[in-house]
Design goal:
Elements lengths: L3 H17 L3 E2 L5 E3 H8 L9 E4 L3 E5 L4 H11 L4 E10 L11 E10 L4 H15 L6 E6 H9 L5 H9 L4 H11 L7 H8 L16 H15 L6 H11 L2 E3 H11 L7 H16 L8 E3 L13 E6 L10 E5 L1 H7 L7 E6 L1 H11 L1
Parallel strand pairs: 1-5, 7-9
Antiparallel strand pairs: 2-4, 3-4, 5-6, 6-12, 7-10, 8-9, 10-11, 11-12
Length: 362
């Protein structure tokens, strides 16, 4: 494993490359307000982050990544357009995989620019790719926005769409909801028994838990209403399954997706963005004919990505996490912007893994 001084030296070299491209150096505090991340991701983030309590500042979290604090900083007082770069430690609990590091250095490059999102996507990808050239990595790309558009276009209720959207980053839960909403699986007996009751549920037995009576009754009523909704059609389900299974090089993936759009027309604008991005990547010298594209790629990473996503992997070392990764997070700027928003995309590298692979190849 590379020593700390070598990692810091390589991080500095990487950051200088991004500075030369126009990145303004930023250095968010190590301790971040936990409330912001909990509001964004719910209690799930606690399983991945180190949380502490400060008597004056309340609940704090050791920086799990740079993107959220950089977005907060930009939305508060950033200029437009803007490019940022940074390097420093991030902290992730690894209780399920103790062999993975819980503290490591991350170097990143972020673009906030509303004029040409396809060009910004291509710039970030090409800049990151330049830093890892010669490492024999596989580049994978995807676009979370395509599946989001497909869900929003389904012929079902807004409540069901919202439930699916919440779980796009949890593929197993997403699949279970699809199976339920399409009628492919029967409701559990406990749910059937609940739905067969009439009137308010609260007050009929001892109440346990933190939910109020009104919250419980509202939830039961919502489940009753949902039980009367027509299932998602088999035609839409087959189209969704075909969509999520697309895994090809960019040109062939786009061709398959255009065919699927006949049954899922809501994805057409997202496909137009994919086509524009492919052209912008090609203009920067990226061989899109050999670039992998997977519709489901990125669905288990940070939940703020809502468009283009990418990662660089050492196929000879499947035990390693991505050497570099990134994506588009427009919705995050809207969530943190207090009414303002701006298209944004960024990527990060792991200098420790870069050094490790260089040493193995030497």
């Amino acid at each position: 494993m590379p020593n700390r001084s070598d990692i810091q030296a390589r991080a500095a070299r990487l950051r200088v490359s991004f500075e030369a491209a126009g990145g303004l150096v930023v250095d968010p505090p190590l301790l971040q307000p936990a409330g912001t991340l909990l509001d964004l991701y719910g209690e799930d983030i606690r399983a991945r982050a180190y949380v502490t309590t400060d008597a004056l500042r309340g609940e704090q979290m050791l920086r799990p990544d740079f993107t959220v604090p950089v977005v907060q900083m930009h939305m508060r007082d950033g200029a437009e357009p803007a490019r940022y770069t940074y390097s420093g430690e991030v902290f992730r609990r690894q209780e399920l995989d103790p062999d993975r590091m819980n503290e490591y250095v991350q170097v990143g490059y972020e673009i906030f620019d509303r004029d040409n999102p396809a060009s910004a996507d291509a710039e970030v990808f090409a800049m990151i790719a330049l830093q890892v050239r010669g490492l024999n990595l596989r580049a994978a790309t995807g676009d979370i926005g395509i599946l989001m558009a497909a869900v929003q276009g389904l012929n079902t209720t807004d409540r069901r769409k919202a439930a699916l959207m919440r779980h796009i980053w949890r593929p197993r839960r997403f699949r279970a909801l699809l199976d339920r909403f399409s009628g492919r699986v029967e409701l559990p007996e406990s749910r059937k028994k609940l739905l067969s009751t009439e009137g308010p549920l609260t007050g009929t037995s001892v109440e346990i838990g933190k939910r109020s009576r009104a919250e419980i009754d509202a939830r039961v009523e919502a489940l009753r209403e949902d039980a009367t909704v027509a299932p998602i059609s088999e035609n839409e389900m087959l189209a969704l399954e075909a969509l999520m299974a697309v895994r090809e090089t960019v040109p062939y993936a786009l061709e398959q997706l255009r065919d699927i759009a006949v049954d899922l027309p809501a994805i057409t604008p997202a496909l137009d963005r994919l086509e524009a991005r492919a052209a912008a990547l090609a203009a920067r010298g990226v061989s899109v004919e050999n670039l992998d594209f997977e519709v489901s790629f990125g669905r288990t990473s940070m939940e703020y990505y809502d468009g283009f996503v990418f990662g660089f992997y050492a196929e000879a070392r499947p035990d390693l996490p991505p050497i570099a990764s990134g994506g588009r997070y427009d919705a995050l700027t809207r969530q943190l912007g207090q009414g303002a928003e701006i298209p944004a995309v960024g990527g990060v590298l792991r200098p420790d893994l870069i050094l490790m692979l260089e040493e193995a190849q030497s």
